Amino acid sequence: MNLRHLEHLLAVADTGSFSRAAARLFITQSALSRSIQGLELELGGPVLDRLGKRNTLTPLGQEVVARARPILRDLEALRDSARLLQQGDLGRISVGLGSGPAALLTVPLLTTVARDHPGLRVSVTHGPAELLVMQLRNRQCDALVVDLRRVVPAPDLQIEALAEQRADFIVRSGHPLAGAARVTLAQVLAYPVACTPLSDEVIRLMVDQFGLQAHPSEMVRLECDDVSALLATVEQSDAVFLGVRAAARAGLDAGRLVALPMHPDMRAGARYAVITLAGRTTAPAMASFRQILQTHLHDDAL
Length: 302
What we know:
The protein has 12 helices and 11 strands. It has 302 residues and is α/β, with parallel strands linked by helices. The strands form 2 sheets. Strands 3, 4, 5, 6, 7, 8, 9, 10 and 11 form a 9-stranded mixed beta sheet that branches. Strands 1-2 form a two-stranded antiparallel sheet. Helix 1 (3-15) packs across helix 2 and helix 1 (3-15) packs across helix 3. The longest helix is centred in the first third of the chain and has 29 residues, at 59-87.
């Protein structure tokens, strides 16, 4: 059944006049008359009694109008939903974040959605990259932001590398090393080093630059996937945080934390990536998510 015919019948029923209905619909009266005739032909009976200038619904017409109204309301709601979906203002996205990205992106993502996208529902999952990739393959997540070095490339994964993030050794402002002109790793190792699990490539870079003493088995005393917990520990103790500078931006900007001037300079950094399933249609709301990535992952890029 042609939905346009139903819309035309409702316009006549609401206005009681072909001329007023045609004006509302921005069509000619002859086109409207042909549309109603087409509907009657399809239904096998008249839907309107035409008595001079008066047009009243027949019993069949009354039944059609009663059933058509909710259908057309639902159709209009569907059109609105489709428009909002394409604008990224409606729907649901599920995002998985590794430890570093979780510290950088969780609050900005939730805040942006709450403030700017009231029709959008977002679910954020934290975890190690390996587990998140499994969830992505099971379609429990729409996209991931994780350490690129902890993901094994595969044909079913679409991997988009982001700018490399600068890494630092970071301490509280009152730390014994905070005022030093330059700091060696040997000096750092006099204090507990706190970091998230390091990828094999980062370990290799650290060992190449600083020697075997930079291997996590020798260097790291406090390991946790929760960057916020690590930074809170650093602010309350003499522990030294090793991780991306951007994760500590709030504390650094407020003067509560200080990045140590390492000698030699740190070469290792974090390589984050957006990962989605290859061939899967991307939700329009992901465009808003990518804007958040651009805003919050570029300031401390190498």
